[in-house]
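User: Can you predict the 3D structure for this chain?
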Amino acid sequence: MKQNRQDTGLSPLWIETSPQKNSFRSILKWGDKDAFKNPSKGFLQVIKQTLNLTDADFQTMEKDGNQIVEAAMPVHLSGTDLASMEKIVGKENISVATYDRLKYTKGKAMEDIMNLRQGLVKDICDIVVHPRHKQDVRKIVSLCHHQKIPVHVYGGGSSVTFGLDCPKGGVTLVLSTHMNRLVSFNETNQTITVEPGMMGPFYEDLLNHAPQKLSAKKAYTGGHFPQSFEFSSVGGWVVTLGSGQASSLYGDAADLVISQEYVTPRGEFKTLEYPATATGPKLNDIMKGSEGCFGVLVSVTMRVFEYLPENNRQFAFMFPSFESAVAAGRQISQGRFGMPAILRISDGEETDVALQMYGLEGGMLDRFLVFKGMKKGKRCLVMGQSEGEKGFAANVLRQVKKICKKNKGFFLTGYPMQKWYKGRFSDPYMRDALNDYGILIDTLESSVTWENLHHLHTAVRKVVKANPRTICMTHASHFYALGTNLYFIFITKMPELEAFKAYQQSIIDSIESAGGSLSHHHGVGRMMAPWMERHLGQEQMEVLRAIKAHLDPNKIMNPGGLGL
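Assistant: Here is the predicted structure, written as structure tokens:
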């Protein structure tokens, strides 16, 4: 163990130049190639202290992934099949280049990133196809069905569950290139229909400026803001059962979907648009979260909401314990006054890290909080934002304050929430910077009932912390009357890929064993697939297999996804 090492507090050298063209780094890097965010001095100090690191550990970078993708990986499709696909979409809309095939079959899971940093090319498709419209999708799926060629779908590429891997090769359909158009907007019904490749920022901007762009009477919002918002697609939200940061008010992606249109190997269908219907089990619900295993989503109709940002009210409270903070969260969620759009509860470790990140530990506020009984390691930060009609937003804030006060929460104004809000989409950039020095950051999340929350929190943290010198920050960020989610962020130094995989799998296993859901909003992919039958039971999995067998008899659609 390293001890008594000198630490001058000097800032490391960070990479702040765009990745080389056609490099592994250009694939693994988060977001905009020209955007960067490095850990604050306070956050870096937390990492150094907990992981027992000093300046010496930030002198030499690990593999940065800037080597060029040069491997000429063989294509396993016949010349006839390749020619047929080119005839369907045009030469300019296909590629068999190794770089393109790798780019569109890798997501942002830690294992993906570790492999790319080592220059590994594996589990890639044989050809990348950029369909122009649903007619192209129909023809490609039909061809692949008859030739038994695997088909995978790429939206924004932000999957963290190996959802884009192609272990059997085949075709990857990139929907965000062309299939990103508005289909229709219905202000009377407050719905919008778009192609699945429309990216989050374009979608929200279209709605926010509906009077100018859609000839609407009012401005609207989609209400869906995952942390990957800037680099994820509407279709991706739907087929992975995503959840946004404002889901406590607006609902998860599944709650926002009105109808869907699919192309499957068996045929095509569009679910019907009704506010409710008693016509048996809903195929619309079955297709949500199907992750491309049953067919290709080609259009989706979503609910939208009036956009009233001038009424937003931000708040933050400090609680003496995780138990008191959770009690307040449950009472807010089960109240009859509406919900904040955003609500977040950080546990003791995450709260301490946040205070150090923002340089507040040891300052006047910190000393005052200690005086008020908010002790380090125990105190928990709760923050959020109410939205909607002016009176509604004001009343939600008023009720939240009342409940928090009753549970010994100390009001901190809206300042902490403002700090978080400003960086809510940019924080993932820090992972690249820390990975350069061999520091791994990964996340796993689970849905849990109120009665089981503390058991799950304790059990999973025990497994995470069993690895020495590891930070484990946990928060709840999506709230329901029945319960919430727990989002575990773990930071450690673990250079060996196999050791990391075993560690990650032990955490997933602890989540399932402790009674949490395998996933709350990241989806299943191939990461959670090994646990699916144990989690759902044999009978439920057989139902999914039966649906798969009907819609995809040759098992070409995302083979291995969902464990199917």
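DSSP finds 22 helices and 18 strands in the chain. The first strand starts at residue 94 and ends at 95.
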